[in-house]
Amino acid sequence: MSGEQGGKAADALPAWYVSGRPHVWLPYAQMKTARPPLPVAGTRGCRIVLADGRELIDGIASWWTACHGYNHPHIRAAVERQLGVMPHVMFGGLAHEQALTLARRLAELLPGDLDRVFFSESGSVAVEVAMKMAVQLWLNRGERRRKRFIAFAGGYHGDTTGAMAVCDPEAGMHALFRGLLPEHHVVALPRDEDSMAGFAHLLERHGEELAGIIVEPLVQGAGGMRFHDPQVLRRLRQAADRHGLLLIFDEIFTGFGRTGSLFACEEAGVVPDIITLSKSLTGGTLPLAATVARKHVFEAFWSDEPTHALMHGPTYMANALGCAAANASLDLFEWEPRLQQVANIARALERGLVPCRELPGVKDVRVKGAIGVVELDRIADLDALRARFVAEGVFIRPFGTIVYLTPPFTIGGDELAQLTRAVVKVLRG
Ligand SMILES: Cc1ncc(COP(=O)(O)O)c(C=O)c1O
């Protein structure tokens, strides 16, 4: 056993860990060489409690989900109550209070007429559903050619094959999976007049075969925490309108306050035709996702023709526990000052990460809402860097060439300062 659990801690490895680890296959890991995962005994507030008793301050909120911290009593009570009533019923032919309440609340919160909610159980599936909706909208209107999408370099939309095909070619491993993935147009985001001209040209040439445009608004997350201006989204809206294309905003990462407004699309004043949500939807408690469509999208499926129905229905869609957690999470956004907390975090991240600007090998330091990023020229050994953060008592998972913080919005000033101090200390070397 190496590194992270070396020495005394290794003696404390629990029996479930020793007997179970040979049977799990870990995410994004070369199983032969990856360091062993840290055994977790529990979570508390913004902390991950390890089996050996150490506590790590969570700098990334469990892949950007735990926006209220862990084990929030309000969410816990809602899930426990729902468990006593009904953990799950299928959503085909049946409806339940938590899902319908959540659908209504999401429709009320989202801008414009984004008001028809299709539930699923993960972000990738929500993206698949959005793409299927877009393609079938055209089929239902009798346009059979429109099956391709425009997506953007640096974008990430999930790991299922449909979603992979609209990721950045590297994240989607397009070359490796050539022949399996449908081919779409993955191009540079139109950030300026020049790239806009190229983008407009692409639309002129291929407009007739396009179903829509998919983008992560304001922040491309897993593709490298790259930010863009709201103006880019307004340009995309104009271009989509000019060519009658559907505009899909993937807010699986940005939704629920992460960039500073409840939804990133609000900052741009743009209403997409379809929006995807997941991650913070349940406050990081249970897997749930939603694909929400505007009225005109839904109306394209409204017909006496059975084949015009949206043919999708994941077994666990609208899971009652997940919907109860999501309703409780929305209560917390109503009752507690989450967006103010995000604004405070943004200021603290700016202050705390500023010393990184002077460090050798640092290419950029940037902050947007509760997202703080230090981009490096290169990271030679990601695993070693991750282990150094653990040694500092924080859980931070750099990837590619970036070290980033996306803490829970409820994080205290001291804990946040410990996170930024750890980043500066570790990068200083
Ligand atoms: C913008 C975006 N879309 C889709 C996904 C995929 O979500 P999931 O991992 O729940 O399938 C992610 C996950 O990181 C994401 O950041």
Describe this structure in words.
The strands form four sheets. This protein has a seven-stranded mixed sheet with strand order 4-12-11-10-7-5-6, with helices on both faces. A four-stranded mixed sheet has the order 1-2-3-15. The model is unreliable at 1-9 (pLDDT under 50). The protein has helices spanning 8-11, 15-20, 61-64, 73-85, 97-109, 123-140, 161-164, 193-206, 230-243, 264-268, 295-299, 320-335, 338-353, 382-391, 413-428, and strands at 40-44, 47-50, 55-58, 114-120, 148-152, 185-187, 210-215, 219-220, 226-227, 246-250, 274-277, 289-294, 362-368, 371-376, 394-395, 402-405. With 429 residues, the protein is of the alpha/beta class. The protein is built from 15 helices and 16 strands. It is globular, with a radius of gyration of 22 Å. The chain is 37% helix and 17% strand. The two termini are 24 Å apart. It binds pyridoxal-5'-phosphate. Pyridoxal-5'-phosphate is lined by residues 122-124, 127, 156-158, 216, 221-222, 250, 252-253, 278.
Shape: globular
Q: Compounds present?
A: pyridoxal-5'-phosphate
- Biggest β-sheet: strands ordered side by side in the sheet: 4-12-11-10-7-5-6
Largest sheet at a glance? 7 strands, mixed
What portion of residues belong to β-strands?
A: 15-25%
Helicity level, as a percent range? 25-40%
Give the low-confidence spans: 1-9
**Helix segment count?**
15
Distance between the termini: 24 Å
Derived from helix and strand composition plus strand pairing, the structural class reads: alpha/beta
Please give the radius of gyration in angstroms.
Answer: 22 Å
- On the 0 to 100 scale, the average pLDDT is 95
Could you give the count of β-strands? 16
